């Protein structure tokens, strides 16, 4: 492994080779990449053209909810315009008949849909999304139980169905001996989330949800959801007439909260781009891993090196959305973590004044976001 301490000039030569694509690169990410964001299956009354046109519109509305993160997206004028020409965005479609019911499975052109949303100043939530671990306790009469990943019952079926509609990757705990040694159903019902969060560490999820559902009567259900995803936890208490209703509302609460943080309206980016600093870039392998990650970062259209020092690099990113959303997305990865600003004196660079005069010393910009390489 070539490290900075060996020869920084040689390191810079290696960086140049990497930038020319001479060395193979690797990358990995903890956040889940959601497939089929641009596919939807909807009921259709017949295979007549008029019914198919309406089904295209219904299917595109389902897709827009997943892609924008907004359940009310159809109320936006720009989205209504897009929906009115849904057929123009269809790539593939096919009918499926089960008994008396027929559905139409539609795949839309993702790039074209994203471009239309951007033109309409509507948000786009990239397919790299937080993996959400859900601890769910159900209390019905004298029965109290937790939902395991292989439960296969109504509760997890409802959660998985709504999660798929919203484009949220979810998982339930295994509830094996290790989980049960740390968590009891009473922990969830009593609000002792510390035990649950500690037991969640092994799953390496990006977000953790602690949820309880209680049946007061057959037609009177209550549920409490607590979402842990950076910062202060978010909570919601909901009521409904059925188990399915309260679970659906709870999952929508989670999806709305995540979309509010991560779905971004495409912008031209701040003048000059978003400058980020990264500490712990100690070798060519580190640099290669970092460069590959930034090349594939969903909210970054492009990146270029701004400054390299032993153990440090800064990059100027042309981004979509604002710095906060880019920062949240980067923190989902297993490549970088948030870090305090480095103890590094600002460098000076040669710059040309606006009046076209002689080159002058220009003080380095201060990075807006700071990260550290993860092992």
3D structure, described in words:
This protein is of the alpha+beta class and about 375 residues long. It contains 11 helices and 20 strands. It has helices spanning about 10-20, 50-70, 75-85, 110-120, 155-165, 175-180, 185-190, 195-200, 245-260, 285-295, 325-330; strands spanning about 30-35, 40-45, 90-100, 100-110, 125, 130, 130-140, 145, 170, 205-215, 220-230, 235-240, 265, 275-280, 300-310, 310-320, 335-340, 350, 360-365, 370-375. The strands form 6 sheets. Strands 7, 8, 9, 10, 11 and 12 form a 6-stranded mixed sheet that branches. A 5-stranded mixed sheet has the order 15-16-14-20-17, covered by helices on one side. It has a 3-stranded antiparallel sheet with strand order 2-4-3. The model is unreliable at about 1-5, about 20-30, about 265-270 and about 350-355 (pLDDT under 50).
Keywords:
31% strand, 33% helix, disordered N terminus, flat, 375 residues, 5-stranded mixed sheet, alpha+beta, 6-stranded mixed sheet, single chain
Largest sheet: 6 strands, mixed
Shape: flat
The secondary structure category is alpha+beta
Low-confidence stretches: 1-6, 20-30, 267-271, 351-356
Rg, nearest Å = 25 Å
Mean pLDDT value? 83
User: N- to C-terminal separation?
Assistant: 14 Å
Helix content: 25-40%
Alpha plus pi helix count: 11
How much of the residues is beta strand, in percent?
25-35%
| Count of distinct strands | 20
A few lines on this structure:
This protein has 375 residues and is α+β, with helices and mostly antiparallel strands. 33% of the residues lie in helices and 31% in strands.
């Amino acid at each position: 492994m070539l490290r900075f301490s060996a020869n920084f000039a040689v390191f810079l030569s290696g960086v140049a080779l990497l930038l020319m694509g001479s060395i193979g690169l690797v990358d990995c990410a903890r956040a889940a990449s959601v497939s089929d964001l641009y596919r939807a299956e909807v009921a259709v009354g017949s295979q007549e053209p008029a019914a198919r046109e309406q089904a295209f519109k219904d299917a595109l509305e389902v897709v827009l909810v997943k892609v924008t993160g907004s359940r009310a997206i159809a109320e936006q004028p720009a989205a209504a315009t897009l929906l009115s020409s849904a057929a123009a965005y269809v790539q593939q479609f096919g009918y499926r008949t089960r008994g008396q019911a027929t559905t139409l499975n539609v795949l839309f052109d993702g790039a074209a849909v994203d471009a239309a949303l951007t033109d309409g100043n509507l948000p786009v939530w990239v397919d790299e999304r937080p993996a959400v671990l859900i601890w769910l306790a159900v209390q019905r009469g004298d029965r109290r139980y937790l939902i395991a990943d292989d439960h296969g019952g109504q509760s997890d079926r409802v959660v998985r169905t709504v999660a798929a509609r919203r484009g949220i990757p979810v998982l339930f705990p295994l509830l094996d001996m290790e989980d049960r040694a740390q968590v009891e159903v009473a922990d969830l019902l009593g609000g002792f989330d510390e035990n649950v969060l500690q037991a969640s560490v092994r799953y390496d999820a990006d977000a953790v949800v602690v949820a309880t559902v209680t049946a007061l009567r057959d037609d009177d259900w209550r549920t409490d959801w607590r979402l842990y995803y950076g910062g202060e936890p978010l909570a919601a208490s909901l009521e409904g007439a059925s188990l399915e209703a309260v679970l659906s509302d709870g999952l929508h609460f989670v999806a709305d909260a995540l979309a509010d943080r991560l779905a971004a309206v495409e912008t031209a980016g701040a003048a000059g781009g978003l400058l980020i600093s990264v500490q712990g870039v100690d070798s060519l392998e580190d640099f290669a891993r970092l460069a590959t990650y930034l090349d594939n970062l969903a909210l970054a259209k492009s990146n270029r090196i701004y400054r390299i020092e032993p153990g440090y690099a800064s990059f100027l990113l042309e981004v979509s959305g604002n710095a906060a959303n880019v920062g949240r997305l980067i923190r989902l990865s297993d490549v970088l973590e948030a870090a305090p600003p480095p103890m590094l004196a600002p460098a000076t660079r040669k710059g040309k004044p606006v009046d076209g005069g002689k080159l002058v010393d220009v003080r380095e910009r201060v990075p807006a976001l700071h990260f550290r390489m993860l092992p």
